[in-house]
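re: ur question from yesterday

yeah so i grabbed the chain u mentioned. its 412 aa long if i counted rite. heres the sequnce exactly as i have it in my notes:
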Amino acid sequence: MRVGYATGSRAGGEVVQAVNGLTARWAASTQGGTVFSAAGVWPLLAFLADGAADPARAELARALGVPAGQAAATARELLTALRSVSGLDTALGLWTHDGLTLREEWRAGLPAGTHGVFGDDLVTAQERLDAWAAERTGGLVERMPVTLDREARMVLAGALALGTTWRQPFRELPLRPDGGPWQGRTLRGLHRRSVRPDRVGVTGTPDGFVTALTVPGDNGVDVHLFLGEERMTPGQVLTAGVGIVERALPLTGGGLLPHGHVGPGLHVELQPAVEPAPTTLDVRTVAYEVRADHDLIALADLFGLTAAADARHGHFPGISALPLAVGAGRQSALAQFGPLGFRAAAVTAVMPVVGSGPPRYRYETTVVRVTFDRPFGFLAVDRESRLVLVSGWVTDPAPYPGFYDHRERSHG
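ran it thru and got these structure tokens back, copy pasting raw so excuse formatting
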């Protein structure tokens, strides 16, 4: 986030609720394929709120879901909690123009070792910021999402990189959907069977039914996949997903469901078996990589930045005596889901600126079969606290290697 002169422990329940609340509100505004991290935005907004004056202070507090006077302390609590999540690396960075003097009490509220200075050589300064973003995300996000200009006086940035390995890997195989927007394509399908039918379930919402699948990682991070009814929007499905993760929506597990078509993409059926066997879960989904860039100012109401972005006035007297307004705010994010695990990263920055052979079957076994073969949502979640770390919607899964889908052939 860029700010400039104006021309006129584990996360506790309240922190989780506040961050997940922002996740749900952001999810409600999503349209197509995307990935985003409210956990990456929330601390930056909180530190801005700590130094803001009304009306920007009140707007930021509403977006955060906590009083502005508690925002900085809550942000420090969140950052400490994020550092305790196995497989998650986080960082906060602050860079100020050498002509900007910060109020010491505000700067001291940020984590130690986060403050750097830049001068009028913006090319070199931008290279340093881009290198920071790449280093803090293991190269998944290659550059800072904001670009320095002559009006920039400060950059406050956060980076998040997440990785987990599946407890049980998937097997790759071609997946050819029979209907829906992916019909006619040969996708990089992922398949596995387990004896844990409770990993999948279905819930009802005012907007329709949603099927939820938990894919456990080996380090306390789980990825949840959500498939809604075809008429439901991405926002409706992901909002329901947050409710499921927080256990605010009741979920009927696969082992308790009757036979038949019981939810979106979800069937319970009897299959022949050569020997007695427990109920099994059969999962078919797709590998995907999703990238997205978000303009926080375009969603100023969501992030409490409407007043703060008005460069006719100064809004952050608690940060500096110079009048500052938010000139830019952006997030770049990426998520990858494959047969062995999940990786994701996000860099968020706000920039204050200068204002202005058939066997003999004797038995039957119950199989809970779930298939994600049309657009669906995902949430990467810290298992213990249920804090949502990364969220997204999949519209363009990976093709199966060596196959070309009908869209490519039609242009050939």
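noticed a couple things. The chain has a mean pLDDT of 91. also Residues 360 and 387 are 49 Å apart (CA to CA).
anyway ttyl
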